[in-house]
Amino acid sequence: MSRTSLSRFLIEQQRKAGTLPPDLRHLIETVARACKAISHSVNKGALAGILGEAGTGNVQGEAQKKLDVIANDVLLEANEWGGNLAAMASEEMELPYSIPDGLPRGRYLMLFDPLDGSSNIDVNISVGTIFSVLECDESVTGHPTEADFLQPGTRQVAAGYTVYGPQTMLVLTFGNGVYGFTLDRENGSFVLTHPEMKIPESTGEFAINMSNMRHWEAPVQRYVGELLAGKTGPLAKDYNMRWVASMVAEVHRILVRGGVFMYPKDARNPAKPGKLRLMYEGNPMAFIVEQAGGMATNGHQRILDIQPAALHERVAVFLGSKEEVARVTAYHN
Ligand code: AHM
Ligand code: MG
C-alpha cells in the first residue's frame, strides 16, 4: 500500500499552483514536529513524573498543569528557530512572544492552545493542541504587538489541531478542505489517513456541559430542551449526547461522524461571552469545521467574522453539522 506522509502531502500541495507557499509548508512541518514531541510526553504521563499541577497560573487565572507548561515550551522552542514566524501567542502567555533578535524572522503569526482539555490529562482522557496561523501585516517592521494579532478568523491562512488520543492525529486546513494524518509511532511520521474530511449535514448527536443548563440563555434552553424531548418533541428525533470536556476530542468526533458542539454564554459570568477563547480555540476550529462543510457561530454570527478586540477574548461556540448549528443560531436571532 502506498502511503502519503505529511511531508509528501505538503510538497504536493505546494506544487499545486498557489495553494501552499513554501514558508507556510515549513511552518506546518515544524508545528507537526513539536506536536510529535508533545505526544511523546503525553504518552509517558506518570512514568516521566509530568502529571499534576505546575503550581502556576496563566493570565486567565487558571491553574496550569505541568504538561500545559511543557507543551507551551515545546511549541515556542521548536518555532522560534524555524524562521517562518514573526511572533507567537498562546493561551498560557499573557503577551505575544516575539521571535528574539538575532534569529531569522518570517511573515506569519501563530496562536495556539498548547494543551487543550488539560483537566483530562491526569485521568488519561484525550487532550490536544490547537493552532491558528495569520499573516503579519507587511508594515510591521519591529516586534509585532497584540494589535497585530487582532485579525478576524477569515484571515487565517492555516489552522489545525493534534488530538492525543488512542491514536495521535493531526488535522489541517489551508482553506481548501480538511485533511487528517495519523502518527505512525513506529517510524515517527504522520500519514494521510483521512483525506477530504466532511461533516455530515444532519446529526443525531450533541455535546454540551449539561450541568450548566440553568445558567444558559433562553435560545439555548429552548434548543437543548427540544433535543432532549426526542421523538415526541418538535424535532421528532431521539438524540444521543457526549461530553468529553476536551474540545479537540469533540471536534474530532464531529468531523468523523457528525454532531453539534456547544459552549454557550453563561449567566455565572455575564461579562464574558463564553468560556472558550476566540483566537486560538474558536477561530481555528471554526475554520476547520467550515472547510469540512459544517457551520460555526457564536449564536448570532459566523465566528470567523468576529473582529477580535483582545488576544484572550472569549466567545460562545456552536459548531458542527449545518442543520443543527443553523437551528440554534436561528433561535438566537
Ligand atoms: P482549557 O483550554 O483550559 O483546557 O479549557 C478548554 C476546555 C475545552 O477543551 C472544553 O470544551 C471545555 O474546556 C470543557 O469545559 P468544562 O470543564 O466547563 O466542561
Ligand atoms: Mg483550551
Summary?
Helices cover 30% and strands 24% of the residues.
Note down, in words, how this protein is organized.
The protein has an eight-stranded mixed beta sheet, sandwiched between helices. It has a five-stranded mixed beta sheet with strand order 12-11-13-17-15, with helices on both faces. Strands 1-2 form a two-stranded antiparallel ribbon. Strand 9 and strand 10 (189-194) form a beta hairpin. It has two domains: 6-194, Fructose-1,6-Bisphosphatase, subunit A, domain 1 (Fructose-1,6-Bisphosphatase, Chain A, domain 1, 2-Layer Sandwich); 205-331, D-Maltodextrin-Binding Protein, domain 2 (3-Layer(aba) Sandwich). Helix content is 30%, strand content 24%. It has 333 residues and is an alpha+beta fold. Helix 5 (218-229) packs across helix 8 (322-332). Bound molecules: 2,5-anhydro-1,6-di-O-phosphono-D-mannitol (AHM) and magnesium ion. Magnesium ion is lined by residues 91, 113, 116, 281.
Count of the domains: 2
Spatial separation of the terminal alpha carbons: 50 Å
Low-confidence stretches: none
Count of alpha and pi helical runs: 8
Shape: globular
